[in-house]
Write a structure and sequence with these properties.
The chain is mainly α. It has 14 helices and no strands. Helix 3 runs antiparallel to helix 7 and helix 4 runs antiparallel to helix 12.
Length: about 325
């Protein structure tokens, strides 16, 4: 994949293969995280994952001719990496010690809800349209169904739920911040830098929490090692590359469908391979949340329908569908 040359028109087969990879791989990373942290402390695992992936992406980009980043680029990468990886991904990894991988994926699906609320606040009171508001309402109703006391036979760990919701909010904020941050023009170089910064912060957090002292390499299982390797190679490199290619080769609306498929994949993989409970309440809540996200996505460009597409004055507040797409492009990995 090249950072600078435009992607030629791709065949439907290539698009289908790349989209299928994003569907399955990103949906499966939640289960892989659960397997990895069975015998590797959470922040130590996550930091190792992103340091490794970041070095590979950074090195590849520089070898392909990406210019050396400036100091201001590293500062922006540090802020974005802290929001997306330390708080965002790190919160999910920590929470999966307390909640199932399927539940974590469903809660992360609330990210578009946070984006709409943050953009609403930033736009000085300009209200979303009725479809987006309906989607917001449905999304929060789905959350109430999902986390209400007694919603599952064993109950839901509210601290784990809160950690995932904070992680989702942090991911949304960091993604919107990155829109105006000074970052390298090369998306792979920028992502590699964010992974390096975020991974380093995760390792520092691991040290602060005493994870290295509790970590015994001899106790690491083969399953955890395979899961970590899967997260590095497939979750952080292969799926991201496929996603960036899709952004250039396929319609954005088609690419954005991964947000609806990933939680479904995660829920069923957790049920099939980790014996995670799959209750009627979970299925109902998933349907309500995903319907809300679908309404938000379908209504995201419509709030600006009265603006001229060529009006440059409207560009600092981009259409919500563009912002939602760039949420994952900043560091498109789970």
């Amino acid at each position: 994949m090249s950072d600078s040359k435009p992607t030629p028109r791709a065949s439907m087969l290539h698009i289908a293969i790349a989209l299928g990879a994003v569907y399955v791989i990103w949906g499966s990373t939640y289960l892989a995280i659960r397997f990895a942290i069975e015998t590797i402390p959470p922040f130590l695992m996550a930091g190792s994952r992103y340091i490794t992936a970041g070095l590979l992406l950074y090195g590849w980009s520089r070898l392909r001719g990406a210019p050396k980043p400036e100091g201001v680029h590293w500062r922006s990468a540090l802020i974005v990496g802290a929001a997306l990886l330390l708080m965002g991904n790190g919160g999910v990894v920590w929470a999966e010690q307390r909640v199932s991988s399927g539940l974590a994926a469903l809660l992360i699906c609330t990210e578009p809800l946070w984006i709409v609320l943050l953009v609403w606040r930033r736009s000085r009171g300009e209200k979303p349209n009725a479809r987006v508001l309906a989607g917001l309402a449905l999304g929060f109703v789905g959350l109430l169904i999902l986390v209400r006391p007694g919603s599952t036979s064993g109950g839901i760990d509210l601290l784990g739920v809160a950690a995932v919701l904070i992680a989702s909010l942090s991911w949304a904020w960091g993604s919107l911040y990155s829109q105006k941050a000074r970052l390298p023009s090369s998306p792979l170089l920028s992502t590699g830098m964010q992974m390096l910064c975020g991974g380093a912060l995760q390792l520092l957090t691991a040290v602060a929490l005493g994870e290295p002292a509790r970590f015994d390499p001899a106790q690491v299982s083969g399953k955890s090692l395979l899961a970590l390797g899967y997260l590095i190679v497939f979750g952080a490199i292969v799926a991201f590359t496929a996603y960036v290619w899709l952004l250039k080769a396929a319609p954005p609306v088609l690419v954005s469908t991964y947000a609806y498929v990933n939680p479904v994949v995660a829920v069923f993989l957790g049920w099939a391979f980790a014996s995670e409970p799959l209750t009627g309440t979970t299925l109902i809540a998933a349907a309500v949340i995903l319907t809300g996200v679908a309404l938000i996505s379908s209504g995201q460009g419509k709030g600006h329908s009265g603006e001229k597409t060529g009006d440059k004055a409207s560009e600092p507040e981009p259409a919500l569908n563009e912002e939602a797409m760039e949420v994952e492009e900043v560091c498109a990995t789970r």
